[in-house]
Amino acid sequence: MDAKNNNVLPFEIRDVEPELADELMKYFTGELTGFVQVGPKRYFLPNKYKQEARNIYNMPVRPTDIFVASYPRSGTTWTQELVWMVANDLDYEKSDAIPLTERYPFLEFSIFVHPIMKERFREENKHSPQKLKLLELVSQPGTEQLAAIAGARFIKTHLPLSLLPPALLDHGKMVYVARDPRDVVVSFYHLNRSMRTQGYVGDFKTYWNYFIRDLHHWTPYFDHLKEAWEKRHHPNMLFLFYEELSKDLPAAVRRVSAFLNKRYSEEQIQRLCRHLSVDSFKSNKSVNYDVMSELGIMVKGEGGFIRKGKAGGWREHFDEEMAQQAERWISDNLRGTDFRFPHMDK
Ligand code: A3P
Question: Which of 58, 189, 288, 337 registers the highest number of CB atoms within 10 A of its CB?
């Protein structure tokens, strides 16, 4: 795909009104400029998205590209490692040697690293040239990191399809993973408290309310999901659920293998499932994002990047009012669509 019409964006990027942005920045202390809402669905992103929108939308996609996409905290890391291992002939040695963050440039992470925050991270890491180098790498725009890769590219993104290159599925492949939004919001709340790039300081109920009002990064949640769901029959799209991986991981491995035209024996699949277990992930430095703690971008205390790894844990965090509100919100958003979560009965 050529990067023609480099300046054309078929959607509008609007600043969030200053009063609302100020309120949000009191809760999300890692953002110091403000936020934008993008396109007709008003996807909510940090202000710095303006700098990257064109590069991302016009990024040339290659036939060997594999995107792993999701709304955050839906099992992206789990899916990334699964996909990478299946695509790379179960190369455990390489998987151990090269961290997931290097194997998968995160397309839009740079927009979450505010320049003032980056300066702070630089200052804190100034005595370690190796850490400074790592900091530059993780905060470099994903499009730049990807342009420098000669061979097959594995790409992590939380952007919805409408903000990605329009011909992405004509050229590359995508594996999209979705998860019960109640588990997503609990998991994301913990991560937002520990990631200083987001730096959330409020309580869970306040957080939940921003999430369902679509005033939180990468929301609206259901539009994100539905855009991918609509493409689920496209030969270059594989749509997975976290709950599916939780319930029957070997079956998910078989689906990914079929999608990537690979065949593995039952024994190989069993070994891969052990490698992909949450306990194995917790102690696997190649996938557990320890690098974020080492750089001081993430502070420990909220369970880390790999946290509980269970489906259905949201019940412990929702009071009765929130549980009912969530049920209404989910059914309102699913009305008139054929989207269903496999673990929900309606
Ligand atoms: P919890 O916070 O509910 O535990 P993402 O990678 O999209 O950010 O998603 C993170 C969520 O996936 C976290 O959920 C994390 O614990 C869970 N997860 C990561 N690796 C996992 C694995 N190997 N098995 C099960 N869950 C996993």
Answer: 189
